[in-house]
């Protein structure tokens, strides 16, 4: 028997197109409806109320007395504005922060922890409070040995170049780069935006490597003038 005899002929009038070729639009809509679940937006309060978050910040011994003296300046914005709970543990030298039922934003606890951490590193309470208001501020810490290994008198001279007479060099770098700098022995902490931190870090690194302060000032003036032109 030939292959021609095996072919079954179907009249086009007897079969509609809908039975032979299913609609692509209906198939895709059914597939999309079944594969994509519909989630409702989550209320931030549900995240806070579901689980209490806690942060602990250890305070160095040399910063505990300033912490007690400025406690109300630290306590007020965290409790009244961020709606968080905070307490001081004098024996352990720890500040504990946690969320509560009144907390509106679950990410505010990280801002509060960064604020207390910045104060513990040596920043002024008013400068550290900027971390609560602005999202693009960061803290970068490094040591002098990360730039260049120095010992003895060479290390002392490098620290002297960073500070300058009566802190003049540090103030100049802060004003030119719009940052805040803390010199804690061989550790350096910089508070500011990402680009401004890079400007201050480059200037400090050049001083550590032995560049004269006059040359560093000239570079900072050039950078400061460029920043003014952008704005």
Automatic annotation (TrEMBL):
Biased composition (Low complexity): 19-34
GO annotation terms (biological process): ribosome biogenesis
CDD domains listed in its UniProt record: KH-I_PNO1_rpt1, KH-I_PNO1_rpt2
Compartment list: Nucleus, Nucleolus
One GO location term (cellular component): nucleolus
Span list, region Disordered: 19-45
Keyword Mitochondrion: no
Gene Ontology molecular function: RNA binding
InterPro entries in alphabetical order: KH-I_PNO1_first (IPR055212), KH_dom (IPR004087), KH_dom_type_1_sf (IPR036612), KH_PNO1_2nd (IPR055211), KRR1-like_KH1 (IPR041174)
Keyword Nucleus: yes
Main location: nucleus
Keywords linked to the UniProt accession: Nucleus, RNA-binding
SMART domains the record matches: KH
Compositional bias annotation for Basic and acidic residues: 35-45
SUPFAM superfamilies per record: Eukaryotic type KH-domain (KH-domain type I)
Listed Pfam families: KH_KRR1_1st, KH_PNO1_2nd
Limits of the K Homology domain: 136-209
Superkingdom field: Eukaryota
Subunit structure: Component of the small ribosomal subunit, ribosomal RNA processing complex (SSU RRP complex).
Function: Required for small ribosomal subunit (SSU) synthesis. Has a role in the processing of early nucleolar and late cytoplasmic pre-RNA species.
Stated family: Belongs to the PNO1 family.
Protein name: Pre-rRNA-processing protein PNO1
Species whose genome carries this gene: Smittium mucronatum
């Amino acid at each position: 028997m030939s292959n021609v005899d095996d072919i079954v002929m179907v009249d086009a009038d007897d079969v509609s197109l809908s039975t032979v070729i299913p609609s692509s639009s209906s198939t895709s809509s059914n597939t999309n409806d079944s594969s994509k679940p519909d989630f409702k937006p989550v209320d931030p309060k549900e995240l806070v109320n579901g689980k209490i978050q806690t942060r602990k910040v250890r305070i160095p011994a040399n910063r505990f007395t300033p912490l007690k003296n400025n406690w109300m300046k630290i306590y007020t914005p965290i409790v009244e504005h961020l709606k968080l709970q905070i307490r001081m543990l004098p024996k352990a030298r720890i500040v504990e922060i946690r969320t509560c039922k009144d907390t509106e934003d679950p990410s505010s606890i990280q801002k509060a922890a960064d604020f207390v951490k910045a104060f513990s590193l040596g920043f002024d309470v008013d400068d550290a409070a900027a971390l609560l208001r602005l999202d693009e501020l960061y803290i970068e810490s490094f040591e002098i040995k990360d730039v260049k290994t120095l010992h003895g008198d060479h290390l002392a001279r490098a620290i002297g170049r960073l500070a300058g007479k009566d802190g003049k060099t540090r103030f100049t770098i802060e004003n030119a780069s719009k940052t805040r700098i803390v010199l804690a022995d061989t550790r350096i902490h910089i508070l500011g935006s990402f680009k401004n931190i890079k400007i201050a870090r480059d200037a400090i690194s050049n001083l550590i490597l032995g560049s004269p302060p006059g040359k560093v000032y000239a570079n900072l003036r050039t950078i400061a003038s460029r920043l003014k032109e952008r704005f």
